[in-house]
Design brief:
Low-confidence stretches: none
Shape: globular
Structural class: alpha/beta
Largest sheet: 8 strands, mixed
Distance between the termini: 52 Å
Strand order of the largest sheet: 8-9-10-7-11-12-13-14
Radius of gyration: 19 Å
CATH superfamily of the largest domain: Dihydrodipicolinate Reductase, domain 2
CATH class of the largest domain: Alpha Beta
Amino acid sequence: MIRWLVIGIGDIARRRIIPAILAEPRSRLQALLTRDPQKAAAYPGVEVFTNLEVALLTTPIDAVYVASPVFLHAPQTIACLQAGKHVLCEKPTAMNLTEAQSMVAAARDHHRLFTVAYYRRLFPKLIRARELIAEGAIGQPVFAEANCHGWLKHDDPDWIRNWLFDPAMAGGGPLYDIACHRIDALNFLFGEPCRATGFLSNVVHSMAVEDAATVLIQYARGVHATVDVRWNSRIDRDQFRIIGTNGEMNLDPLSGPILRFGDVHESLPTHPNVHYPCIENFVAAILDGAPLACTGDEALWTDRVTQMVLLANQTR
């Protein structure tokens, strides 16, 4: 049985992470860490803490889910690893590549598991897409693109995740919040990126983080990929396609069940709670030695891409 501490009781924790832990048969929600203990009232019988050090010292914990704002990911993750706990961290890994590398190093030094919740790696249709690519279903892959567009009311003071608009807390805008999942999905399909660049801009919204990011990535064997993410489009998009020498694979919308290639349409729905397979995989890795869906080292690939995009924009 894995006894969990969840750090943060925000929107994602309430809707997905905590329900996944409660549903996973070899997991127990042992404790919650929050600045506002009233948020924990919905979970009777669970220990509640406002101080991480106290939580780590006074209650039996095997694993920690870090679901706090991004600026806290590195210090909280490292503190948990140093205390001998396994850590599953919400995306993106950290504020920058150096912080992310320090988290991976702490896991290695203290012989504990560390991963990032890139749950799309466990989407049945993304797993199937990788299998089909390996089988040559579309020939040699040469190009891939992912677009995720939406509109955010950044001036709404009541929006529950307004911290996303503060670079000191979130690191960046859609590059950090949305692109990381798509970059990791491409890494899952094509491996470690060779090079990357990109553009950040504020086309519509005037705020401290970008409202649009476009990323260009090069993979081995000449595969090019683009990721375009926006908070400035009123037309919602969740597009993902792969072009090969002999065909095309379409996963639109990425969060939906349908995979298309040629005349074939396959329906491969996700778990009703997309975080559940991520929790299940982490538990299996701890208890059974199962491979992690995304190792800490593989999570760093996305952080390197993000850093290359940021550096490219600093020189313009």
